[in-house]
Amino acid sequence: MALSSTPFRVPGARGAGRARPVGTATRGTTNPNRLRRMDRWIAATHGLVLRRHGARAFAVDLGYGAAPWTAVELLSRLRAAAPLVQVVGIEIDPARVAAAAPYAREGLSFLHGGFEVPLPDGHGTPPTGGARGVGAPSAGEADGPVLIRAANVLRQYDEAEVAAVWQRLRRRLAPDGLLVEGTCDEIGRRHVWVALGREGPRTVTFAARLASLERPSDLAERLPKALIHHNVPGRPVHAFLRDFDHAWAAASPYAAYGARQRWIRTARDLSADWPIVDGRGRWRHGELTVRWEALAPR
């Protein structure tokens, strides 16, 4: 699906031109708590950066879908770690922005836009003619988003388009900002995401509800678009999932103590051969994070 940048006029924009939002509308499937695993990880690993920005920190929920639940939940979860953070939900479908209007409140706003992330000049204000936004933050509130979360957005795109989208979004980040892009199932039991800084991709995180997981490679169907087509013999991500399954099988005696203990043992053994960057504190949540370079297509 092609990315669009055709210019058009926004009614009420005082004659100023505004580029058409970049991207295409997703299916919009949204369920409450679908992104809880990703949100929990963001709050734990990026909360310090969000707190450091104080009232100038804002996070973007990009492509929140047909209902605003994920943006509402993101605000709640991030404020547990950074009480002053603001969340901006951005949707390419103006009808979805209008439907989200009743949920706008202090710290939570909604804007019409796409991959261009319509928060220009490093501030939290919408573009000229921003009447399409609901409850938008005021000028000077941030130097670009401290977080952009794009969940279940790029799955519908061609793999060849991913690098350009990543680059566009990374350029919108604050200097110490984070882009988190990934895919999960409809009720959030299985989730894989890539974390990127301005410099590029950093890590890949696998997260699951362990009680429903038969083997780690079951997460393969939720690989982000940048990796999913590379899960074939001879590619790094395929080798990683193979070793993940082997370590899981070897840790089967620990299942007697529960799936969590089996996962922890699996992660410890896997870290002998792969650059796992987290530890027991995250493993106990059913997470495991590996450096991007180890899984990157090549």
Automatic annotation (TrEMBL):
Name of the molecule in the record: SAM-dependent methyltransferase
Alphabetized InterPro entries for the sequence: SAM-dependent_MTases_sf
Biological-process GO terms, alphabetical: methylation
Record's keyword terms, sorted: Methyltransferase, Transferase
Region annotation (Disordered) ranges: 1-32
Compositional bias per record (Low complexity), positions renumbered to this chain: 9-30
Any one GO molecular-function label of the UniProt entry: methyltransferase activity
Native organism: Streptomyces tsukubensis
